[in-house]
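Onboarding guide, step 5: your first structure request.
Type a short instruction followed by the sequence, for example:

Predict the 3D structure of this protein.
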Amino acid sequence: MDRPTALLFTDDDAANRLLAADPLALLIGMLLDQQVPMEKAFHSPYDLKERMGGRLDASTIAGADPDELAALFSQRPALHRFPASMAARTQDLARALVERFDGRAERVWTTAATGEELFANLRSLPGFGEQKARIFVALLAKRLGITPPGWQEVAGAYGQAGWFSVADIDGPESLARVREHKRAVKAEAKRAKAAG
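The system replies with structure tokens like these:
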């Protein structure tokens, strides 16, 4: 599989190109993908890069003054619904990358010989719970062709064909299907909670 020149997760070509070209941008986008629309979460790394002078760098983010980083996240338009807490979480992610992966986000997957190792690497990152790590394994496989042995087992349902997550988005039509699937899952969870 040829590496794509863009990941079509937003309606902005430059942001989509950044996601495909910069592993740190992709990890930050995935980190921010909660309690905001997917397009917003995955566009925010591009906005953060612009606000940081045109460069995303894990060491720079890790060493930034926390208040200054929070201010960058809070500038209008804010990078997340909860800018201060997500700035702190992004900084924690950057620190983990510096400490464990020499500040290079791609080492999260290039150092993993198996799907289990990849999953463990992702789970070691702040903000990457079990579900988010499984989705990211599927995203790496389905969108970028990064398929260490056993990736499908750790990705679970997200590794199967279908429209379950951001891993399945390859354009506007699939984005709409992922949205519909998410709505259905949330509605079912709400029904189950009400019945329970």
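Each response can be followed by summary notes, for example: The radius of gyration is 16 Å.
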